[in-house]
Amino acid sequence: MNKGTLFVLTGPSGVGKGTVRKLMERERLNLFTSISATTRAPRKGEQEGVHYYFLTKEQFEQKIREEAFLEYAQFADNSYGTLREPVEEHLNKGENVLLEIEVQGALQVKERCPEAVMIFILPPSMEELRRRLIGRGTETPEKIEKRLKQAEWEMSQRDHFDYQIVNDHVVRAAVELVSIIRREGC
Ligand code: 5GP
Predict the structure, then answer these.
(1) What's the 184 CA to ligand 1 centre distance in angstroms?
(2) Mean pLDDT (10-residue bins), the chain, 186 residues
(3) What is the pLDDT of residue 25?
(4) CA-closest residue to ligand 1 atom 24
(5) Atom of ligand 1 nearest to the CA of 34
(6) Site residues for ligand 1, CB cut-off 6 Å
(7) What are the φ/ψ torsions at residue 93 (nearest 5 degrees)?
(8) d(CA 85, CA 44)
């Protein structure tokens, strides 16, 4: 049986990766979306095992020692990581797998799995990214500044990716993502 294709969706925080992904998930694609582990506190409405696996710092470090992560990174004072086992299980079953992760982790995946399809979502401008992060209302002004600072470095990495999608219009961006997955997926 053919193995599935690994897709990595990345881009700065606030760019709309999650919104684009949710729209895309309405299409009938043979796609499993990985659920990450994080030490970040749950936001209002976020559920354990649905949005993330919420771990303490100690639990996260234990997973690092057990080599349970395919990739992990520090981002805006918290740790985030992709659990290796479910990703491998789904790929081995012939399903495509999507990781929605930040850029440092995406670059680790590219090194470890050079066959992964790497997709970068860009904001139309940095001003628009700031506006979206503020509009989302999930972070304090101080945390928004941290995320924007990180975004400048993240944007500088975009040429390492196979595809770049500008999220100027969420439906258009989702259509572009679906067509990439249909073309590259198994
Ligand atoms: P948030 O706190 O807004 O949910 O996520 C912050 C950033 O971490 C986002 O860019 C998100 O895509 C990224 N992220 C989520 N899960 C993972 C993961 O498993 N690994 C890495 N490297 N980044 C992740």
Answers:
(1) 24
(2) 92 94 88 96 96 98 98 95 97 96 97 97 96 91 93 96 97 96 91
(3) 86
(4) 101
(5) 19
(6) 13, 17, 36, 40, 71, 73, 75, 80-82, 100-102, 105
(7) -80, 0
(8) 28
Token pair for 54 = 């919420």
Q: Distance, CA 133 to ligand 1 centroid (Å)?
A: 14
Provide the 3-class DSSP secondary structure of residue 77: coil
Contact 112, 71 (CB under 8 A): yes
For ligand 1, atom 3, the nearest C-alpha belongs to 13
Cβ atoms 25, 178 nearer than 8 A: no
- Torsion, CA 7, CA 8, CA 13, CA 14, rounded to 10: -20
DSSP 5: P
> How much is the pLDDT for 1?
66
H or E element, residue 12: none
Q: Which residue has the tokens 């086992």?
A: 85
Please, which residues bridge with residue 54 across strands? Answer: 38
Q: Please choose from 38, 40, 71, 132 the residue to mutate so as to test ligand 1's pocket, defined by most ligand atoms within 8 A of CB.
A: 38
- Burial state string for 54-71 with b = 16 or more CB within 10 A and e = fewer than 16: bbeeeebeebeeeebbbb
Whether 106 contacts 8, CB under 8 Å:
yes
Give the pLDDT score at 178. 95
